[in-house]
Amino acid sequence: MNSKIRLGILGGGGDSLIGVLHRVASSMFDQFQIIGGVFNPNWEENIGFAEKIGIPTNRIYKDFDTLVEEELKLPEASRIQVVSILTPNFLHFSMAKKLLENGFHVICEKPMTTTYDEAKILESTLKKSNTVFSVTYTYTGYPMVRQMREMIASHAIGKVQKIDIQYYQGWINPVIHNEELRANTWRLDPKKGGISCCIGDIGTHAFDMLEYVTQLKVGKVLSDLNYVYDDNKMDVDGTVLIHCTNGVKGVIRTSQIATGEENNFTVKVYGEKAGLKWEQENPNYLYLLEDGEPLRVLKPGNVYNSPLSLDGTKLPPGHPEGIFDSMGNIYKGVAKAIKKEPYNDGEFPTMRDGVRGMNFIECAVESHLKGNIWVNLDE
Ligand SMILES: NC(=O)c1ccc[n+]([C@@H]2O[C@H](COP(=O)([O-])OP(=O)(O)OC[C@H]3O[C@@H](n4cnc5c(N)ncnc54)[C@H](O)[C@@H]3O)[C@@H](O)[C@H]2O)c1
Question: Which tens digits make up the pLDDT trace of 359-368?
Answer without folding.
Answer: 999 999 999 9
